[in-house]
Structures are given as structure tokens and as C-alpha cells.
Write a structure and sequence with these properties.
single chain; 268 residues; alpha/beta; binds nicotinamide-adenine-dinucleotide; SDR family oxidoreductase; SDR; NAD(P)-bd_dom_sf; SDR_fam
């Protein structure tokens, strides 16, 4: 077998990617895919976030456009796929990254709280996968789908996230089934399970956390970091680099897998 040069394997020129979620991990992934030469459609429900990310990445000379989308709404998702095709001519890579993780104890959780998390984290992944895979099958040149799950798809990271953990276990199961189903079409489907990554969403979660009187938040965070063998939180780029690997020919023999990117935290 001929061995292709490593830099060529990572080259995404002429490929088009849709990345859902415009800040945090979504930004880290969009950055690496665009840098590798892909056309990137950054899709999020917030126009402000989309505009900021598009303006930062296009200022580097990269081909990036934005779409305002709520991934839990079927019409929005259909339109997003149409926009990618009309803007760039095809869709080759989908990264299902948009997600929410509000912390609520299960006995205080309303049905609405539960359904909202499932709607974005699980139904959103289904809708984007449905319409993108339809397009990929029609194009007939294969594709890559990358689902951002969480270590919570394997093991709970904290209390208050029962709805979130249910959604992420769901996405992992969905990933494996869809990988099997889309393999005859050469569409490879994998997941990335991040541990704690510093993002706007995590900062919001930490601010909203109820700290009981007398508990020192600095000590709580120190204890949290002490549980991570690498002794640091993840950065969006730690996930962006693995997404680039899965989006590229570097991962030529992989489908139906989940890569844990957590600084070793599941070991502790
Ligand atoms: N940050 C972490 O520690 C961590 C750990 C494990 C998994 N994850 C997963 O990574 C993904 C990204 O997390 P993050 O920390 O970057 O989050 P974040 O809150 O910082 O950013 C989320 C992005 O998704 C967008 N979004 C939210 N709901 C949407 C919707 N309905 N439609 C379209 N866009 C929507 C937001 O506008 C935002 O751009 C999520 O799926 C999350 O579960 C994060």
C-alpha cells in the first residue's frame, strides 16, 4: 500500500464542514478545520456568537460562513444543510457539537427542563445527522460525522446532570447505530468524549452553582483539578485537534468509536 505524507492526510482543502455551536469547543473545532483548508459553516442559535467567530476566522483568510440555527428545530436544520450546499457546493463533514448542560437536582427537575436538554443534545444530533447524511448519500462521495458526547456518556461527572447524562448516553448509542447504517455509504461516524474543558458554558455553570455558606470555592476547584491526572482543565483546542484527526484521512479505518479526551480524569 502506498503511504501518503502526513501533512496531505490532514489537508481538508475542497471539503466542507458544518460545525454546530460557535463558541467554546465549537470555536476550537471550527478553527482547526478551517485552518486545515475546509470551508466551514458555523451554526449556532446566537447571531452575536456566529458573527464574532466568522469574523475572527475569516480575518485569517479562511473560508468560513455562519448560519443562525436552533438544532432542535427541524426547519432550521433543513435550511442549514441547504445553506451549506448553496454556499460551498456540498457537505463532507458534520460536527454535532451544540449542547447544553444546566445543573438541576432530579427531584426539582421539571418535565420541561428534562425535555429541553434532550431536545438540543439528542434530538438536535438526530436532525442534523438525518439531513446531512441524506445529502452525503445523494452526493455519493462518503463523509465524516463527529458527535461531541462527554465523559458523562460513560460515567457521571457530577450530580445535577441526570438529563444531560441521559442525553449523552443516547448520543453514544446513536453514534454506534448510525455508524453501522452509514458504513455502506462510506460515511464514517465517531464520537469525542471531552472531560472538563474551559468554555463560556462551563464558566456560566460555575457562576450559577450554589455554594453553601462556609465552603471555599477556590478549595472546591483545587480538589477538582487534583482529580485530573494532567492537573489542568482542557482547552477547546484539545478537542479541536482530535476533531481534525477524525475529520481527516488520518482516521481512515475508524467508525463507531468514541475517543475520550479528558486529561486522564476517568482513571481517577
Ligand atoms: N465544556 C466541557 O467541559 C464539556 C465537557 C464534555 C462535553 N462537552 C460538550 O461539548 C459541547 C460544547 O460545549 P461547550 O462547553 O463548548 O458549550 P458552550 O455553552 O460554551 O457553547 C455551546 C454552543 O452551542 C450553541 N447552542 C446551544 N444550544 C443550541 C441550539 N439549540 N441550537 C444551536 N446552537 C446551540 C451555543 O449558542 C454555543 O455557541 C456540548 O455538546 C457539551 O455537552 C463540553
Amino acid at each position: 500500500m502506498e503511504i501518503t505524507a502526513g501533512n496531505k492526510l490532514l489537508d481538508l482543502t475542497k471539503k466542507t464542514a458544518i460545525v454546530t455551536g460557535a463558541v467554546g469547543i465549537g470555536y476550537g473545532i471550527s478553527y482547526r478545520l478551517a485552518e486545515a483548508g475546509a470551508n466551514v459553516l458555523v451554526a449556532s442559535r446566537s447571531k452575536e456568537e456566529v458573527d464574532k467567530t466568522v469574523s475572527e476566522l475569516t480575518s485569517k483568510g479562511w473560508k468560513v460562513k455562519g448560519a443562525i440555527v436552533d438544532v432542535s428545530k427541524e426547519e432550521d436544520v433543513k435550511k442549514m444543510v441547504e445553506e451549506a450546499v448553496s454556499d460551498f457546493g456540498a457537505v463532507d463533514i458534520l460536527v454535532n457539537n451544540a449542547g447544553i448542560y444546566p445543573s438541576i437536582p432530579v427531584h426539582q427537575m421539571t418535565l420541561d427542563d428534562f425535555e429541553k436538554v434532550l431536545a438540543v443534545n439528542l434530538k438536535g444530533v438526530f436532525l442534523c445527522t438525518k439531513y446531512v447524511s441524506e445529502e452525503m448519500i445523494k452526493q455519493g462521495k462518503g463523509g465524516k460525522i463527529i458527535n461531541i458526547t462527554s465523559i458523562d456518556a460513560l460515567h457521571p461527572s457530577s450530580v445535577g446532570l441526570a438529563h444531560y447524562d441521559a442525553s449523552k448516553h443516547g448520543v453514544w448509542g446513536f453514534t454506534k447505530n448510525v455508524a453501522l447504517e452509514l458504513a455502506p455509504h462510506k460515511v464514517w461516524v465517531n464520537a469525542i468524549a471531552p472531560g472538563g474543558v474551559t468554555t463560556p458554558g462551563v464558566t456560566k455553570l460555575q457562576k450559577a452553582m450554589h455554594v453553601p455558606q462556609g465552603v471555599d470555592m477556590t478549595k472546591v476547584l483545587e480538589t477538582f483539578l487534583a482529580k485530573i491526572p494532567m492537573r489542568r482543565m482542557g482547552e477547546p483546542d484539545d478537542i479541536g485537534k482530535v476533531a481534525l484527526f477524525l475529520a481527516s484521512d488520518m482516521s481512515s479505518y475508524m467508525t463507531g468509536t468514541q475517543i475520550v479526551v479528558d486529561g486522564g480524569v476517568l482513571l481517577s
